[in-house]
Structures are given as C-alpha cells and as structure tokens.
Amino acid sequence: MANPGYGKRSAPDQLQCAKDDFTHLPPREAAIAAYIDRLPEGADISVKTLAKTLPYGQCALRTALNRLQNAGHLRRGRERLEPEGTGPRWITRSWFSRTARDDGWWASFARGDTPEPSPKPTRTRAHILLAALGRKTPALSLSAADCAALAPLLTDWFARGASDDHILRALTDGLPTPIHHPAAVLRRLTDKLPPEPVHTPPRRLLECANCGLLGRPEALPGGMCRACRGEDPRQPNAPLPTPTVQARAQQIRAAMSARRHGPAPVA
Question: What H or E segment, with its residue span, contains residue 81?
C-alpha cells in the first residue's frame, strides 16, 4: 500500500467486472491492467512497486502503463486538497478505470463534472444502527418491524455524510419523558436531517505519461503532451533565404558608409 492519501484511485461509474474487460489490449498490457484492477484503493501502483510483484522490468512496465493511459484506463496527475487546519496542498494521484474512457471523459473528470465514488448506505448498516438504540437508550428499543420501517429514513443521512454517532446523538438528545411510542419519536429523523453538503469542484491537473509535464486534460490527448506525440504546434520562424540576408546586409553597410562620409557641417 502507498502512504495514506496516495496510491490507486478508482474512477467513478465503472461497469461491473467482466471477463472481457481488457481483451482489446495486448496480452502484457491486459495482464497488468487486470492486476491493477484487482488491487484495493490506495495500493501503490508505481513502476518500482509493480516490478517487485509482476514478471516485468521497470522499462517494460513504464511502457505498458503509458499504453494503458493512451487506451483510456489510466491517468496520472495532481489534485489540490484543502484539509482543515493545515492549508491547501497538491498531492500526486493515479486514477484507474476498468472501463476505458476517452479524452473528453477524463477532461470532465478533472473538472469535477463526474460524481465521485461514495459508499452507498446499506439496509444492514441502518438495521444495526437502529437496533443499537435500545442498548444505549432502553426506552427506544425497536422491534424488527420498526427497524424495517425506519431504515429507509437513514438513507439521506448517510448520503449527506452523517456518521453513526451523529445520528445516534440526534435521536437520543433531548428526548421527552416518558416515551410512549418509540417509532413515532424517531420520526425526528426527518425533522433533524442535516443540510446537503456543499459540492466544491476538485482542482486537478493531469500529467504527460512520457515527460511528466502538467497541463489541462485538453492539452494531453491520450495522456501525452503534443510535443511527446510529435504534434507540437510551436515551430521556430523559418530562416530567411541566403540572397535576402546578403542583400539586407549590403543595404546596412551602404547606409553606414554614407553616414560616415557625408558632407561636413557648415561652420
């Protein structure tokens, strides 16, 4: 695994895993892509680390990763984080997608136009939380039927980033006495629902797979800069023809000679 916060990041909205996910790639690239796809989030997928576990040298792996990038399965770059209390910083990212993406999709992803993967609330999690209420506050003991009826109300709480402790406090603080209908009191799940989180678009830069140049996704088609692809539009000015240069030099020499030998000023 890479250091916390680094390593493999899975792109959002990927198709389900299938046997033919990488059949469009050459055998070596397909094997490497399948291996990376099986790795957990945060795994170190640098060339040096992959060379320790795969039967390929660093040079071969570097070439293979570049081909995965060109095929739309991989992008490497940097992302700006703004953790509370420490100030903003840029960190290195490696995003992998089982589903091949074109340059337009990766450009949208860099702008934050695609949803980030987030853990989906599950029925099991909701039932566990609701059942735990009775252990913490006996007056709120719920039946299995009550848990089943109330579990859907937790969906929005989870989606808005609420933790289990946050929900438990919201349900148990300031309870009336006595409690005659626990399930009715728990309808406060709707009244105390936290606001939707403010979505801040991420700040991401992708880098060229060959030279590491950072830039906007539009300037890195296939994950490579135009210079490395041999498509650099910047060309030096074409040199002047030799006769033109010689004629211009002769004009300059004639002008300088006329200035030196011109008529003397009248006293």
Answer: strand 74-81
Is the pTM higher than 0.70? The answer reads no
For the record, the structure tokens of 197 come out as 């989180």
CA distances from 23 to 70, 170, 191 (A): 15, 51, 51
- Residue 202: enclosing H or E segment and its boundaries? none
Encode pLDDT of 89-138 as tens digits.
788 889 999 999 999 899 888 888 765 555 554 456 788 888 888 777 88
Any residues with CB less than 8 A from the CB of 68 and at least 6 apart, and which? 25, 29, 32, 33, 74
Helix (H, G, I), strand (E, B) or coil at 262: coil
Q: Residue 253: phi, psi to the nearest 5?
A: -65, -40
Phi, psi (degrees; rounded to nearest 5) at 78: -135, 150
Nearest to 56 by CA among 67, 42, 40, 41: 67
